[in-house]
Design goal:
Elements lengths: L1 E9 L38 H13 L7 E3 L1 E4 L9 E4 L6 E8 L3 E12 L3 E4 L5 E4 L6 E7 L6 H19 L9 E8 L5 E7 L1 H20 L7 E6 L4 E7 L9 E2 L5 E3 L1 H6 L6 H12 L3 H10 L1 H14 L2 H14 L1 H7 L4 H11 L5 H13 L3 H21 L2 H8 L4 H12 L5 H15 L1
Parallel strand pairs: 11-12
Antiparallel strand pairs: 1-9, 1-10, 2-15, 3-4, 3-14, 5-6, 6-9, 7-8, 10-11, 12-13
Bound molecules: zinc ion (ZN).
């Protein structure tokens, strides 16, 4: 089985790719449009510099070769959602090619190319056979990331996409609106011919569409049939793919160079742009530099890059990786949301744990200080609450010593303690407080 993906990412520019229309949500259909993005005769596209910068950043993140000169092409696009009849995209010389992305920091997935292009509008079909077109989206900047057919299972394609989306968001500061701004074309072949399932959105749907196709193509081949090269759609509700049209070959698109845009010398710009370390790279580095296992590093990084930075601060301040790991995963991460909202200095967290490491305060005191510092709650109130909580938890652990062993094996067993305390106290304490109090209680018993 061979699977390749084409991933479309909407770039977070404020205006469209070739005109100044806004990309924000519009108050009504066809309100964010101008003669340019409607393709009226006599209008000329003007390149959005920000879109080029985003393209270069993503090309760098994907370890692509970036050319000194790039240009655009016109592709025949004879559908009503693009009123020009052509789409501006890249073909021979895109913003990046021949890249590689490392899944789990190890397994290489080859990136064929990354190109810049404009999005078409949206067609809405109605039951009475009529259609309406909304061009608000037409001209929104997209990048298309094309992979080689390097995936061997639908689950692997999904996992790649999950990791890639995290890295893309981080690299170009893409707001986290779920998976809305990312769509995927999935290519899959079991035998000789390749089938493309267009426009699948959401990780789960990518895996479902690919799995459906794998089974369908296998059945066709087993029955002695032939899989046709075609483009298919995916019906999310029924979980099936359906034929849309026979697949075009690249020559059918009739690419020509886009004469209205000319050449872009991006070499100097590309060399001047540096990108942030991606979350995947951070996880790999933490694991190597601090000798912690990959899963733990991944867990810390995927909670938040900020949490990973605090982990490094604690490790440096205390000189103990063990302390940094256990507190980062414990009290620091359970109070993380409140802390991020507070805008306080993360050095304060490292400072409290340094006092602990130096023997100036106890475990319990450190926990309380962290809680108070990170959430902004009153220390005396936390002290009182934690005394109450630890009494209830100690009582429960004394009566059910087997839970201690279970939690050591699997942290999920903590849920039993949380459930008990919640019931006992009528939901007076938050689950994160209960978890951190339970961890303290367990620590003192080990
Ligand atoms: Zn416009």
């Amino acid at each position: 089985m061979m699977i390749g993906l084409e991933i479309h990412v909407q770039l977070p520019t404020r205006s469209k790719m070739f005109c100044s229309c806004p990309t924000t949500d519009a108050e009504g259909p066809n309100t964010h449009v101008c003669p340019g993005c409607l393709g009226m005769p006599g209008t000329k596209p003007v390149m959005n510099r920000k879109a080029v910068e985003y393209g270069i950043k993503l090309a760098k993140m994907l370890n692509c070769e970036i050319p000194d000169t790039m240009w655009f092409s016109r592709k025949v696009y004879f559908y009503p959602d693009m009123s020009k009849g052509t789409q501006i995209t890249q073909y021979e010389n895109p913003v990046g090619k021949k890249g590689v992305y490392y899944m789990n920091g190890k397994r290489p997935i080859r990136i064929t190319k990354i190109q810049l292009e404009e999005d078409p509008g949206k067609t809405k079909r109605f039951g009475d056979q009529s259609s309406l077109v909304d061009y608000n989206r037409a001209g929104t900047p997209l990048t298309e990331i094309v992979t080689e057919p390097d995936f061997t299972t639908p689950a692997e394609a999904r996992e790649f996409l999950r990791q890639l989306i995290i890295d893309i968001r981080h690299t170009i500061d893409l707001p986290d609106d779920g998976e809305r701004s990312i769509r995927c074309d999935c290519n899959i072949s079991i035998g000789k011919e390749r089938v493309e399932v267009k426009n699948v959105s959401g990780l789960k749907n990518v895996e479902r569409a690919l799995t459906f196709e794998a089974v369908r193509q296998t059945k066709v081949l087993k029955a002695g049939g032939k899989v046709e090269r075609e483009t298919r759609g995916f019906d999310e509700e029924r979980g099936v793919t359906f034929s849309v049209r026979k697949k075009e070959y690249e020559s059918d698109y009739g690419y020509i160079h886009e004469p209205d845009l000319g050449l872009f010398h991006i070499g100097d710009l590309a060399r001047s742009i540096t990108i942030k370390e991606s979350p995947a790279q951070t996880a790999a580095r933490l694991s190597k530099e601090y000798g912690i296992d990959g899963k733990t590093a991944d867990q810390i990084v995927s909670t938040s890059i900020g949490l990973a930075e605090v982990f490094e601060m604690i490790a440096k301040a205390t000189g103990s990786v063990k302390t940094a790991v256990s507190w980062t995963r414990g009290a620091v991460s359970s109070n993380w949301k409140a802390f991020e909202a507070s805008g306080k200095d993360p050095e304060g967290i490292a400072g409290i744990l340094k006092k602990l490491e130096d023997g100036k305060i106890t475990d319990v005191e450190a926990d309380m200080e962290l809680n108070s510092y990170m959430t902004g709650r009153d220390a005396a109130a936390i002290k009182e609450q934690s005394a109450d909580l630890s009494q209830i938890i100690d009582g429960y652990l004394d009566a059910h010593p087997e839970i201690i062993e279970e939690i050591k094996k699997n942290e999920k067993a903590l849920n039993r303690v949380i459930g008990h305390v919640m019931k006992e106290t009528g939901g007076k304490y938050s689950s994160s407080d209960i978890v951190s109090a339970t961890k303290n209680a367990l620590n003192s018993r080990l």
